[in-house]
Amino acid sequence: MKFLRANLILTAASLAICCVFYPAALWAVGQGLFPSNANGSLVTAPDGRMVGSSQVAQGFTADHYFWSRPSAAGYDAAATGGSNWGANNPKLRDRAARQLGPLVRYKAGSRSAAGGRTPQADMAAWFGREPDRASAWAGEYTVAAAAWAKDGADGDTPGPNGAYVLAWAKDHPEVLTDWQKGHPSADPKPEDVVAPFFASFAKAHPGQWPSGVEGNGQKRVEPATASPEVAGWVFDLWLQDPANRDKVADLQPVPADMVTASGAGLDPHITLRNALSVYQLGRVAATRGVPADRLAAVVDELSFTPLSGLTGEPLVNVLELNLELDRRFPRQP
Amino acid sequence: MWFLPLLIVALVIGASIPLGLYMARVLDRDGPRYRFERLFDTGGQPWKRYCVAMLSFNAATFLVGFAVLATQPWHPAFLNPDGKGMLSPSTIFNTACSFLSNTNLQHYSGEVHLSYGSQLFAIMYKQFVTPVIGLAALLAVIRGLRGDAHLGNFFLDLWRGTVYLVLPLSFAVAVLLIAGGTPMTMEGNATATTLEGGTQSIARGPTAAVVAIKQLGTNGGGYFGPNSAHPFENPTAWTNVVENWSILVIPAACLVMFGRMIRNMRHAAVIYAICLLLLGTFIGWGIYYDTMRPNPGLAGGPAVLAPDGKPYALATRSADGTAGFTELPTSASREVVALPIDQDTGNLEGKELRYGPSAGPTWAASTTCTSNGSVNCMHDSLNPLAGLTPLSGMWLNVVFGGVGVGLINMLIYLIVAVFLAGLMVGRTPEYLGKKVEAREMKLAALALLAHPLLILAPTGLFAAAGWLDPSTNNPGPHGFSEGLYEFTSSAANNGSGFEGLGDSYGFNDRPPLAPYGAHWDIACGLVMLLARFIPIVAPIAFAASLAAKRPTPFTAGTLRTDTVTFGIVLLGTILLLGALMFLPVAALGPVAEHLGPIPFGR
Predict the structure, then answer these.
(1) How far is B185 from chain A (nearest CA, A)?
(2) Euclidean distance between CA atoms A201 and A210, whole angstroms
(3) CA-closest candidate to residue A195, choices A129, A131, A158, A140
C-alpha cells in the first residue's frame, strides 16, 4: 500500500517535471533566444518563398546547380535513412558504378582524352565490338541486371524494361525454359528471367542494348547500337576488362563524398574539393556562362572547416551555395 | 584525425571526477531531507524490498509508456500535428519493453511513426527514469558491498537521481544543442518549395529535449530514424562533441562515485584505467579499419586464389552422396579493378561530413562501450572489421557501461577475477574485506552467463528457423552480422542496430513492411527484459549476501584490489571470458565478410 502511494506520487511528479516543465522551459528558451534554429533553420529565397532548411539536403539535378551527395532516402526529410549497405553488398558498388558511368571523364591532357574522346564513347564502342557483351554482363552482374529489369516498376506493374522482357519472353520461349523447370505453375517476374533474356537478346541483336526511348510521352524500349544508356550499366564490366587498362588509368577520380550516401540521406554539405572538381565546378560554370575562377572564389568564400577548423577538410553547404549563385549570377531567362 | 577522439575523452575525464564526487554527495544521503521527500520515503529497505519497490515502479512506467503509445491516434492535435496513426501491437510491445529496459532499440522510425505526444510522454519519460533506475540499483549494490544495515530507499534514490542529476544536465545540454541548430518546436512538418521547384516536407518537433536526455541517460533512442546522424539531431561538429561527451560522462562518473562511496579511490582508479584502455582500443581499431581504409566494396582487390594458384572451387555433395567440386565463375576469383573514387578520407558510406572523418568510429565505440546505442553514422555500412568495434563493445558490456548497470556488470567480472586469483594462490577469495563463497559465485555466474545465452540462443534460433535470412538487407556473412547485432544490442540493452535488418512492422493499418517484423518485435522485447532485470537483481542479492558477512581482517595475505597487478588480472579475465563467449560468432560474421569475396554473391 505504501509502495502504491509512493509509486503514484513519484510517477505523477516525474511526469510533470520531465515531460511538461522541462520541454516547456526548453521551448521558451529556444523560441526566445534561437527562434530560427528552434524552428528548423528554414531558409527563404529573395522572393520570399520558403525553399528548405539550411540543415537539410535537397536533391539537385539541374546542370546549373551544385549537386548534393546521393541520398538513400531520396532527400525525403520526413522519412530519412541511410542505405545500410555493407561493403560486401553488390548494390553498393552497382549504385556507385551506375552514377559514375555517365559522368566520369578522362584526366585533362591525358592520352585517352586526346581528340576529345570521352569514356562514354569508348564504352559504347567497346560494347559494340563483341556480339554478346550484354549476355556476359547479365550473367555476371546478376544484382545489377535484376535492378535493370525492375527499373521504373510500380509495385507489381513492371516498368518499361520489365514490360519489354516479358514481351520478349512471349516470342522467345527459350527465355522461360529454365525458370519454368523450377516453378511449373507460376508466372515469372521480369527480374527472374533477366539473364536468359539478355542471352537471347544478344543472339538476336548482337552488339546492341535494349535502350529506353521517349516517344508520344511514353517510354518504350528498343534495341539500339551505341546507346548512351550503356555507360551507366556496363561501366564496371568495362573497368574490369584488362584490354581497357590504359584508359582506366587515365580516368579522373571523383571525391568519395560524391558517390557515397550519408547516414540520414540529408547531409547538407559536400567537400570543397568535390565542389571545385571538374565534375561540379566545370559543369556549373559552363551552364551559367560564368568564368570558372570567379565561381571558385564564391565557393571558397562559403566554405568552412568543421569544429572551427580543428578537424576534417573544408566543406560547403549546397543549398546556401546554390542560393548565392542565383543571387550573384542570375540565369538569363 | 586523432584530435577529435582525444578531445572527447579528455573532456570526459575532466568532467567525470567532479561530477562523480557531486553524485556521491547528493545521492548517498540517508533518509529524507524535506517534506516532499517524506511523502514517498518508505524507510530503509533490505534487498528484497528494494527489488520489489524497483520492479513495482518499472511496472508503473511500463503501463504509462504502453498506454501513451497505444492511444496515439487520439492524442490531442497540438501533440500530434501530423496525425500519426495506430502502431502495430507487436511494435508497441517491443517499444514499451525497449524503453523500459533502457535499451532504446527502435523497430519504428521516429519521424514516420510517432506523434509528439508519444515522443515526450512515452519515449522521453522512460529516457529520464530508466537510467536513474539503473543508478539506484548501483547505489543499492554499493551500499551492500559497503556493509550498510540496509540498501537505502529506492524511491528516494529515484527522485534524487532524476532532479539533481539527469534533469539539470539535460537542460544544459539541450540549450547547447538548440544553440547549435537543433529544433525545439511544437509545429508540425514544414513544407518547402525546393530551388528546383519540387516540394520537400521537413519533419521537426521538440527534438532538443529528447536528444539531450537520450545521450546523457545512455538511452540512445533517436528522435529521428537515423538518430544522431540526422542533421537536426546533431547539426554541427561541436554538437557532435557535446553529444559524444554526454554519452560517456555519467557512466564514467559512476566509477568515481563508487570510489568515493566505498572510500577506496585507488580501487576505482584501477577499474577506470581499464575502461579507458579498452575504450581507446575500440576507438583506435574503428578508426584504423574505417577512417584510414577505403570502403572495400568500392575499391579494388587482388585475385582470390588458393595456395596452389588456382581459383577456389565449391565443394558439393550430390543426392547420392558422392563428393565433387563445382567451379565458380571467374568473376569470383579474378582481380578487381577499383572504381575511380578518391577514398583518402576513408569509408564515407553512411557517414556525415560535418563531424570530421574519425567522428563515426569514435562515436561507434563510445555508444556501444556504454549501453547508449545512438549512432552518428550507419553501423551497417562500417567496413567489415570496423564493425567489430560496436559488436565487441556490446559483447563485453562493461567498458563504463550503462548508467549504473555498467558498473554492476563490471562488478561481476571483478568477482570472477577475484575468484580466479584466489584459486591461483589457494586462498578463499575476498572482495572489499568479505569472503566470496559458493552462493555469491552462483549469483555472479548467473548474471554473467545470461548475457551470451541471450545473444547466441536467439540468433541461432532465427538463423535455423529461416527467419533471419529473408529479413536481411545484405548478403552472406554481413546479413548474419545484422541478426547477430540485433540480439547483441538487445541483450546489452544497447539499442543501436545494423539498421538494414527488416524488423519494422510500423503502422497497424498498412501492409507489413518486413516479412518477420513481428517475430523480431517479440523476440527482441523478451530478450531486452530478461537482459535488463537478471543482471540487476542477481547482483543486488549478491551484494546483500556479502553485506551480511563479518568483515575479515586485512592481512599481508589479502589479495589487494587496488594495484596494477590486479588491474592486469581483471583485464585478462574480461578479455578471456569475452573471447571464449564470442570469438566463434565474430568469425562467422565480420571476419568472414572481411576475408570474403567483396562484392559477395553476384
Answers:
(1) 6
(2) 8
(3) A140
Mutual angle of helices B207-216 and B125-146, in 10-degree steps? 20
Question: Mutating which of A37, A91, A103 best tests the B interface, going by the most B Cβ atoms within 10 A?
Answer: A37
| Full domain range(s) for residue A162 | 91-249
d(CA B143, CA A157): 66
- Do A225 and A145 belong to one domain? yes
Instruction: Establish if B601 touches chain A: CB-CB under 8 angstroms.
Output: yes
Give the domain-ending residue among A216, A249, A282. Answer: A249
Residue count of chain A, please give it: 333
Q: Across residues B542-559, what is the average pLDDT?
A: 84
Asked whether the ipTM of the predicted complex exceeds the cut of 0.90, the reply is yes
- Flag whether residue A21 sits within 8 Å of chain B, measured between CB atoms: no
Residue B434: the pLDDT is: 87
Tell me, yes or no, whether A29 lies in a domain.
Answer: yes
- Within 205-264 of B, beta carbons closer than 8 Å to A belong to 206, 208-209, 213, 224-226, 229-232, 235-238, 241
| pLDDT tens digits for range B257-310 | 999 999 999 999 999 999 999 999 999 999 999 999 999 999 988 887 888 888
Distance CA A65, CA A281 (A): 9
Q: Is residue A127 part of a domain?
A: yes
Q: Measure in Å the smallest separation between the Cα of B194 and chain A Cα atoms.
A: 5
Domain end residue (candidates: A198, A218, A249): A249
Nearest chain B residue to A1 by CA distance is B42
- Interface test mutation site (partner B, options A260, A315, A316, max chain B beta carbons within 10 A): A260
pLDDT at B601: 74
Give me the average pLDDT of each 10-residue run along chain A (333 residues).
Answer: 87 94 96 94 90 94 95 90 91 94 92 90 91 90 92 84 90 84 83 91 90 79 81 91 93 95 94 95 92 94 93 94 92 69
**φ/ψ (deg, to 5) at B301:** -160, 160
What distance in Å separates residue B561's CA from the closest CA in chain A? 38
Q: Which residues of B touch A144 (CB under 8 A)?
A: 602
